[in-house]
Amino acid sequence: MRAVHLVPAALVLVALGAIGGVAQLGHPAAAPAPASSPAATRQVPVTSAARACPPAPGGGAAPVALLAGGASATGQGQVELTALPPAGLPVRATGPVRAQSPGALWMLTLPAASRAKAKNGTPAAQGWSVAGDGTMAQGLEAELTQGSGLASVRCAEPGSDLWFLGPGQVNGGSQVQLDLMNVDSTAASVDVSVINDAGQAQVGSDDGITVPPHQTVTESLSPVAHGSSVLAIEVHTSIGRVAAAVSAASRGTTSWLPGTASPSTRLVIPGVPPSGSTAGLFVANPGTSTAKVTVTAITPQGRIRPFGSQSVDLPGQSASDVALSPLGGTTAALQLASNVPITAAVLVPGSGPGVLASATAPISELAIVAGNTSGAGLAASVLLSAPRAAARVRLTEIAPADRASASGTGANGTGRSVTASQVVSVKAGRTLAAPVKAPKGARHGSAFAVVITPLAGSGPVYAARVETRDQKTVVSIIPAASALTTISLRPVRDSYDAIWPS
Questions:
Q1: What fold does the segment set 367-488 form as a domain?
Q2: What is the per-residue pLDDT across 239-281, written as a single tens digit (0 to 9) for each?
Q3: Within 10 Å of residue 199's Cβ, how many Cβ atoms?
């Protein structure tokens, strides 16, 4: 076998020599750039973006809140939502749903899934692809919502390594479902592993789970949730990429597990609201060495060590549920530091088994939460945390205009949008809760979007939108994830890296 590999390697060396000669002929007077010269980068607009919305609980109609494109964007583009039917079932795909107005909040109702049933007799789970192009790819964000337009879960971005953390059966996750959605034209091969109180468990066959192009595959995780208090779920692809969503049902109520940051030695969990009872800190250690985790709460008053000088010790390949004190009844972000990579989330007491706040990255450029509501006992606020340096952020609310005062065309073709904005400052090492509501002139009872934009000179800022009922019951937490409008491109230089044998 070794001799077989020597021949291609020799051919590669000949090719390198030939390419080198061509490169010299093509640039006879060019001198190599000094190693110390900075590489100039270009900012180019995002022209293509993809998300995937999970199946609506029970297979019913799926309300989706969507915002894409800048309010002052020029050029053409559209967002198209297309059904991702269940794999292996003869389900006819529903026609696409389109949005074309940049900078406007769209409230779209997607048709219910087919009446076809899976092998276990449950309704077939049908996801939806969200594809934006041109101007409408910039700052694309979509969320599955309740009938009122309140976001339940973000429509996921496809990837090759995705993590979720949430409750097992002991904490209300008696029925846990994983939906894998493939928005691409090639099949994906997926490995799913779970860490619970008993250690690591594999889901599916040893050969992985195949997700066909433009289809949805659903797996039950209830067997590995049985008897456990916490689940850490890793979705890893060896071929292709997928978007994933995890839901936990208990006593007829379905909660979503938002995606959490990949394992790291430093994590920030924003959006932990005040609570009159104890929350649960979920921590998972996928490595083999024991993790020693220190926890710091970033509050409006400053930093608090909820566990004092003690660390949370977690053996390798294990997950744990640690009681978290109410933190003095105040809003907070949790900052975790560990000697080995970990992942984490917080289960906040609220409706159903509770509402999860997950670890996120700081906002880069801007972030959007499309589905928000206020009034009738509901109130929304954006929790902003600046762990290191002071931050300045602009919050912009966008909503469909009242029909009586509307002119032109905007969201859903019924009228223009109205906006309002505020600039808020967050001191270093503090958390700030900024109330948000539908802007003046918005259609009565309509949902509204919030755009979170760090301003020039701002330090790293983490955020989440928290929605409460009657000022005390938490009903929704949506972590703020970056929704890019531009990307950075480095210059391309003569390089042999692309054909070097591996």
A1: Hypothetical Protein Tm1070; Chain: A (2.60.290)
A2: 999 999 999 887 777 889 999 999 999 999 999 998 767 889 9
A3: 12
